[in-house]
Design brief:
The protein has one domain: Up-down Bundle (Four Helix Bundle (Hemerythrin (Met), subunit A)), CATH 1.20.120.1630. The radius of gyration is 20 Å and the shape is globular. The chain starts with a helix and ends in a 7-residue tail after the last helix. The chain is mainly α. Helix content is 66%, strand content 0%.
């Protein structure tokens, strides 16, 4: 099999199971975070006045990634930029809004969301390893996606791809989207990501305090977690028993 075909085949397979990478990284990161809690003397921010500030910086990075995802999904047309797992879907080619400055904004958002969590480990080698593994993993997925789009949209895709960077935004190229922001789509599609993000931060915070036999919980993060649980359950119930989110 030619290398080009191999890249696309592996990328298509990874696309279907792309949700498992965060789980693997999360399990590894959990070990590193707990180690940092048990051996705080080995890390420069543990038990210092900078610890809370550092944790809030990590949360800010993750929220920035979440914000990119929300913006992307909110302005994307139907059957594009989704969480589909069976295969590639693109009824139209996104070239305006955030897609006018970067070709893969959802993966950029994912990267920032999980980078914030990786930074919680305060372990330089784990953070570097995470970044390398993330991009090796998603590079194949992005390649497979672009092959699909190239075959479907031909010259339109090539023109857009040649002038739009893959992952580092070129903000000067921004072109406003002609669509209205779809909050219903965002609320429905991003509920799992919001819940997972705040559950992870809360779990790490609470577990860390318990491991050190302390009670200095971050109640701001805990409150956000509680809100995300209510939000998730509300959307699930509304989706099942009403038509509020139908047609999205």
């Amino acid at each position: 099999m030619a290398l080009k075909e191999s890249f696309e085949k592996s990328g298509t397979w990874l696309f279907r199971y792309r949700g498992y990478l965060p789980v693997i990284l999360l399990l590894t990161g959990t070990v590193m975070v707990f180690r940092s809690e048990l051996y705080p003397h080995t890390l420069f921010v543990r038990n210092t006045v900078f610890e809370i500030s550092y944790e809030m910086m990590c949360l800010f990075i993750s929220l920035l990634g979440l914000g990119i995802r929300i913006y992307t999904v909110g302005y994307s047309p139907r059957n594009t930029s989704g969480r589909n797992v069976k295969g590639q879907v693109a009824d139209s080619l996104n070239t305006t809004g955030i897609y006018s400055v970067v070709r893969h904004p959802l993966y950029l958002g994912n990267f920032l969301m999980w980078t914030g969590i990786a930074f919680l480990s305060v372990n330089l080698w784990f953070i570097i390893s995470f970044m390398l593994l993330f991009w090796l993993y998603y590079e194949r997925i992005m390649y497979a996606e672009e092959q699909y789009l190239s075959r479907k949209f031909g010259k339109d895709f090539e023109t857009w791809a040649n002038s739009t960077p893959a992952i580092l935004p070129a903000f000067r190229r921004f072109k406003p989207s002609g669509r209205s922001f779809n909050w219903r789509k965002v609320l429905k599609k991003e509920k799992s990501g919001v819940l997972a993000l705040f559950v992870v931060y809360t779990a790490f915070d609470v577990a860390g305090e318990l491991l050190r036999n302390e009670s200095g919980f971050n109640y701001f993060v805990i409150a956000l977690c509680c809100i995300s649980v209510v939000y998730y359950l509300s959307v699930k119930l509304l989706t099942r028993y009403t038509r509020v989110f139908s047609g999205i």
